[in-house]
Amino acid sequence: MHLIALSVRAAVLALGLLLASAAMASEEAQLIDSINAYRSQAQSCDGKGTPELPPLHSDPRLLLPVDGVGDLQAALAAAAYPMMNVQAISLSGPRDAQSAMQALRESFCRVLLDPQFIDIGINRQQRDWRIVLARPLLAGRMGNWQAEGQNLLKQINDARALARQCGAQAFAATAPLSWNATLGSVAEAHSRAMANGNYFAHKDRNGHTPGDRAELAGYAGAAIGENIAAAMDSPQRVVEGWLASPAHCANLMNPQFREFGAAYAVDPKSDAGIYWTALFGRP
């Protein structure tokens, strides 16, 4: 009987440790969800407006020790993460994900809203947190902007063929988009402007909106929508990010849009390296 009691107490202790570990992991997952919800909406940070951003992808290679001891680049190299740029944030004091998110919004909004970062890892010990945001090296070679624009079109038409939920909005499956050369050229020019000018915004340096740029190029459509992305090195990743972002997803699934043009541009000197623009038009 004594041995049975010991076994029961050991089992209860093990269960308690397991539940505590799960609760900690849950707080980390909740913080990632909160960060992605924050990024999914247009924000104001340090007096500047920022566009909606796709969600960050949780990468276990970015789960670094909370104490922050050691070289950050060496740690990521040891974890086999092909880093191009990285930012690590250390917090001490927040008791849960909600408190940590408040601290991040107050002191690190520029990091959270930096479009170059596409991966995230969060580690936590009690009230100490380490949040790592990173951009990997561009992987592989891509075709020219026209070819990748067409690849993006195929990915988007595959997505439009299925009913889906974009945040609070439900969309039925809808007709495929057709390629429009004018919209493609406008998209390429904006991607190139963002890459060479090292900025990420729907409004260009001349103050032109997507509709302005399309009209100036001779597009006579009745309505224009635009999605932009940065740091992602394949059409598949771009579309996955947009589908996970309510505003981008809504543009992509909008049944009023019938025409499409898209392009990417690369500038190694820019923060994000690669920039994408997709234009949706209603004739």
From TrEMBL:
Assigned keywords, A-Z: Signal
InterPro entries named among the record's database cross-references: CAP_dom, CAP_sf
Record-annotated SCP domain positions: 155-280
PANTHER family: SCP DOMAIN-CONTAINING PROTEIN
Protein name: Uncharacterized conserved protein YkwD, contains CAP (CSP/antigen 5/PR1) domain
First and last residue of the signal peptide: 1-25
Organism: Pseudomonas pohangensis
